[in-house]
């Protein structure tokens, strides 16, 4: 966009590659009674594709300076709301829809906060997001790898995660410092933790100090009990959290009840 003062503080790097825009839009399939929520439409490059999919589209954009540009996109299935996504009442906006699809080239500085909000305040069917490559690697990391952490466990517990495409930093204006990846998160709980809050707390505690072992990070838990569950996986309290699989964390949490 010419004559636009891009705000780095709002993660404003707008997509200019039509190929990528098409790939994102074509990566998921909706019915007419579904809802697409776009987070941070910017100048509307992706929005223009999303409205063609047929269901209602609601966009949340924090920067009111984009009104001039976004109001040019007219479509009776489009509603653009100028608010901070982190502050909107998601339950209210999503009422009555069959399935919820969240899409966005996310402002990187709030990627995790956005995902936490989506998961805790709604029941998303799919989330298709562009995020910085390093963060995508953490989302998808397997046990025993450097990037595997509580975020990986949290997301892999809730979703199947697949890569849609890589996106070079040259596909944006202005050009950011890092490359990006588009990921698709599809709701799929393979195993259910009996008490999810307890499960989330367990993984947070287990990874609280990355270099320490489970015995140290889980001091406040019934260590004997945890040790005997770990033994059933041929592991013990000397392991670190990064050596424990999602399914093992679920089993530990369920035994703690
Ligand atoms: N989707 C567009 C723009 C991506 S840049 C494209 O791909 O071209 C990120 C966008 O998110 C910017 O428009 C920025 O203003 C917006 N944004 C940043 N923080 C936000 C927030 N908290 N809530 C809603 N939008 C936000």
Would you write up a description of this structure?
This protein is α/β, with parallel strands linked by helices and 257 residues long. It has two domains: 8-187, Rossmann fold (3-Layer(aba) Sandwich); 196-255, rRNA adenine dimethylase, C-terminal domain (Helicase, Ruva Protein, domain 3). 33% of the residues lie in helices and 19% in strands. The strands form two sheets. Strands 4-3-2-5-6-9-7 form a seven-stranded mixed β-sheet. The protein has a two-stranded antiparallel sheet with strand order 1-8. The mean pLDDT is 96. Bound molecules: S-adenosyl-L-homocysteine. S-adenosyl-L-homocysteine binds at residues 10-15, 39-42, 45-46, 60-63, 84-86, 105, 107, 110. S-adenosyl-L-homocysteine binds next to strand 1.
- Which strand order does the major sheet show? 4-3-2-5-6-9-7
**Which shape, going by the Cα principal axes?**
elongated
Structural class label = alpha/beta
- Per DSSP, the total helix count is 11
Helix residue percentage: 25-40%
Kindly state the number of beta strands.
9
- The share of residues in extended strands comes to 15-25%
Level-1 CATH class name of the largest domain: Alpha Beta
**How many angstroms separate the termini?**
55 Å
Please tell me how large the radius of gyration is. 20 Å
What's the architecture of the largest domain, going by CATH?
3-Layer(aba) Sandwich
**CATH homologous superfamily of the largest domain, by name?**
Vaccinia Virus protein VP39
Bound small molecules, which ones?
A: S-adenosyl-L-homocysteine
Average pLDDT figure:
96
CATH topology of the largest domain: Rossmann fold
Could you spell the SSE succession in H and E letters?
Answer: EHEHEHEHEHEHHEEEHHHH
What's the number of structural domains? 2
Described by strand count, sense and barrel closure, the largest sheet is: 7 strands, mixed
